[in-house]
Amino acid sequence: MPLERLSIKAPVFAMATLHHAMQLLAAQTAAVLSASPLAGAHYAAPVYHGSISYAQAIILGLIQGVTELFPVSSLGHTVILPQLFGWHRLVVAESQPESFWLPFVVGLHVGTAIGLFIFYFRTWVDIVRALARSIVTRRVEDSTQRLGWLLVIATIPAGSFGLLLEHPLRVLFTKPLAASIFLTVNGLILFFGEGVRRGAENRDKKGLQPKRQLDNLNWKEAVIVGIAQIGALFAGISRSGITMVAGLVRGLDHDDSARFAFLLATPIIFGAGVAKLPDLTGPLGDGVRGQTVVGAAFACAAALVSVRFLSKYFHTRTLIPFAIYCLLAGVAFTVYFA
């Protein structure tokens, strides 16, 4: 079937399963809430002394490093795939309020952030120097200074909400069925972004609007892009994907949207890792510290390869293949887990 024809039918096909799946998710959510302290009950006992093999850590690290940058949701895949692989202890730990799983996953995210930092090292050096000059002169005098301040502004909403909501949202929605539903939603979001971008390209060709570039993104639009990243707190919603879509909606092309998404992901992911470091060094990290370091190293290597590929890919390509994958995989996993 031609890609264009499939890209039109896929969203319709996906929506046919979402209603029933959302009902199932609502039932699961109600069950979780009924067991919360607000309902007069107590959380399950913390899951200490994690059991993750080094082979599992390597596999999950590779998956994290690739799917964090490919717009298909790293958290969604690290929730869904252990269930498919039969790694039941990991599946149980995923939705526990206190377990070894969260510090382990955060460690993988830090490995990914390090990979991104290495790839964009020269860019970050230029940005830090530009911000320092801007602070001294109290002016924004060039495109690098502007990019630096846009990243600072866009980081604030995502970072703030992440600190407040990451833990409760992961406890509530880090389940295979929920992740599958949100993966389907992620595909719809990517299709939406491509639809908006095609409309903008048509207006560009007709001369109805000036071509947007990252250099002329304004402060309010940076806040919008930052707010969009909050969606990535739900397993199944891609951080890079939703950030790229926000950029496309504001008129950026795929190349600029991807570059801004990857740069913006670096401080947010790294900051979340630093915030969770005490968990890894405390009792929750018992039995998984070595595996976390190994997994993070493989995540770093996978991220380096992935960002190198994608930075070239988005010069000429679109989000459509990833949207199709998310829809088909999300629907298939939703049917399977339901």
Strand content: under 5%
Tally of separate domains: 1
> Would you report the number of β strands?
0
Average the pLDDT over all residues and give the rounded result: 83
Indicate the structural class: mainly alpha
Write the layout of secondary structure elements.
Blueprint: H1 3-34, H2 54-67, H3 74-85, H4 88-94, H5 101-119, H6 121-137, H7 143-173, H8 176-205, H9 219-228, H10 239-249, H11 254-281, H12 289-313, H13 320-337
Helix pairs in contact: 1-8, 1-13, 2-3, 2-5, 2-12, 3-4, 3-8, 5-11, 5-12, 6-7, 7-9, 7-11, 8-10, 8-13, 9-10, 10-11, 11-12
Properties at a glance:
mainly alpha; 338 residues; 13 helices
Describe what you observe in this structure.
The chain has 13 helices and no strands. It is mainly alpha-helical. It has one domain. The two termini are 28 Å apart. Helix 1 packs across helix 13, helix 2 runs antiparallel to helix 3 and helix 11 runs antiparallel to helix 12.
Give a concise summary.
With 338 residues, the chain is mainly α. It has 13 helices and no strands.
